[in-house]
Each structure stands twice: as C-alpha cells, then as structure tokens.
Specification:
This protein has helices at residues 20-33, 49-52, 57-60, 70-77, 97-100, 126-141, 159-164, 176-191, 207-216, 230-238, 242-245, 247-262, and strands at residues 9-13, 38-43, 103-105, 108-112, 145-150, 167-172, 197-204, 221-227. It is of the alpha/beta class. It has a single domain, classed as P-loop containing nucleotide triphosphate hydrolases (Rossmann fold, 3-Layer(aba) Sandwich). Strands 3-4-2-5-1-6-7-8 form an eight-stranded mixed sheet, with helices on both faces. β6 (167-172), α8 and β7 (197-204) form a beta-alpha-beta unit. α1 (20-33) crosses α12 and α4 crosses α6 (126-141). The chain is globular.
C-alpha cells in the first residue's frame, strides 16, 4: 500500500503591515498551480486574505468568520459566544466546518476564523475552544496544503497544533521593530515546542536591506526575499490577486515554495 503523501502545513506571521498576507496569497496560488488542494486560513483579526487572493466581492460577502457564528458556537459547545466559566464542550465537533463555511475560488478554499475577544489572561471561552479544535482538524486530519495567515503571534495554535506545523514563516521588513517581533514570535513558538521557524524578507530594495535582515537575525534561516513592488500596491488598489499582478514577487515566492518543499 502506497504511503500517503505528506502535504505542507504553513503558518505565516509577523508584525502588522510587513506583507505576510501578500506572501500567504502568493504561496496559496503557487501550491495550487502545482496541483495541490489548498486551504487558506485567515486567522488575522484584520482579515484581508480574500483581497490578496482576488476573491470576487460576491464570494467574500458569503463568508462569515467562524468566531462570529453565535448559533454554530452554541450548537457545538453548548455555551454562548463571549461567555467565560461554566461548563461547555472543549473538544467540539468541527470536521464539517471547513467545507460548509468556506468559499472556493480558482481552486483555493478560504476559511476565515475571526477574532476572539480576550476576557483576561488564560481565558477560555466557547469560541476559542471551537477555533482551537478547528485548527487541530485542519493541521492534523485534512490532507490539503494549509496556508495560515496569522496575527503577530500564535493565538490560534496550541501545543498539539504547533507540532503539526511544518514551518512557521515570520515575514520581516528592513527595520528594528520588525526584527524584534520576529524574535518574540520565535520565543512564543518555542514555548509550544515549535522550532521550525523561518524568515522571509519583504519590501527589500537592495543588498543593504538584505544584509540588515540577515545580520540582525543571525540565528534564523532566511528562506528568501521579496522585493519592494509597486505592482503589489496596484493589486490592492484594483482588488486583484497579487499573484496575477506582480510577476517579480511570484518568481521569488516560487523559490520560497521550493525551499519549503526542501524542508
């Protein structure tokens, strides 16, 4: 019996505005072009992965963030969204959610997780339990390439799911704050046992920018560099997939995808 092929599970994170959503959109299309089934997860509170993927407005309007689905949360956990304490199902059924509540465009399935409003340190609420179970299902039990566009942290990951991530990519731009965020993310990931943390440089203008990133993050493996691109800005203005608009970014992202395959 042939061994089941292992597909990539990739989490992309970084400081706000560095271009992690751009990279997520590029990799989603690159893996889809290679014949993979791809599910793109928007786990950033500032959800705009649909725009980077060029999803048409009529499809975007059909997508409701999972964390905002009051009826679904109550049905699966037995508790109302936003409540804390009390009793609720911490391992709810989620296997049907990716297919029921996602949208598909050009071979890419998009699922939007939404934001959990934190009620305090260590707070556990029904919607967070649902999202964590959903991430377990996506990373451990589905045979698709998963590209997760995360916030600048690892909110939706637990210890079990972190172990299933093949690569966490921290997108950085030439700048001190971006570098500091990368170090913080690696520390948080390490707390969960995730050591496969890599860097991709973005908005790189010249060799000096490349040197800045490499010299200030000497303990990271750099998978590649995306150049500063006016086409990326144009794709956002026109509401088109960056994959269709910015050939210079696509060429570099293909090298990053190949490096990920090598890992």
């Amino acid at each position: 019996m042939a061994e089941k092929k292992r597909v990539a599970k990739i989490a992309i994170t970084g400081k706000g505005g560095v271009g992690k959503t751009t990279l997520a959109g590029l990799l989603a299309y690159i893996f889809a072009a290679q014949g993979e089934n791809v599910i793109a997860i928007d786990a950033d509170p500032d959800a705009n992965l649909a725009s980077a993927l060029g999803f048409p407005p009529e499809l975007v309007e059909q997508i409701t963030p999972i964390a905002a689905m009051d009826d679904l949360i109550y049905e699966r956990t037995g508790a109302q969204r936003g409540t804390t304490g009390g009793f609720f199902q911490i391992n709810p059924r989620v296997d049907d959610i990716p297919d029921r509540f996602s949208a598909v465009h050009r071979g890419i399935r998009l699922l939007v997780l939404g934001t959990v409003k934190k009620g305090g340190a260590g707070c556990i609420c029904p919607e967070s339990a649902l999202l964590r179970s959903l991430m377990v299902n996506l990373l451990l039990h589905r045979n698709e390439v998963v590209i997760a566009d995360m916030e600048a942290g690892i909110e939706h990951l637990g210890r079990a799911t972190a172990q299933a991530v093949d690569a966490m990519i921290v997108v950085v731009e030439p700048g001190r704050r971006s570098v500091q965020t990368a170090e913080t993310i690696r520390r948080l990931a390490g707390d969960l046992g995730l050591t496969r943390v890599f860097v991709v440089g973005n908005k790189v203008r010249n060799d000096e920018d490349r040197r800045f990133i490499a010299e200030n993050l000497p303990d990271f493996k750099v998978l590649g560099y995306l150049p500063f691109s006016a086409d990326a800005i144009r794709s956002d203005l026109e509401g088109k997939a960056v994959y269709d608009i910015a050939p210079d970014l696509v060429a570099e992202a293909e090298k990053i995808a190949a490096a990920l395959r090598g890992k």
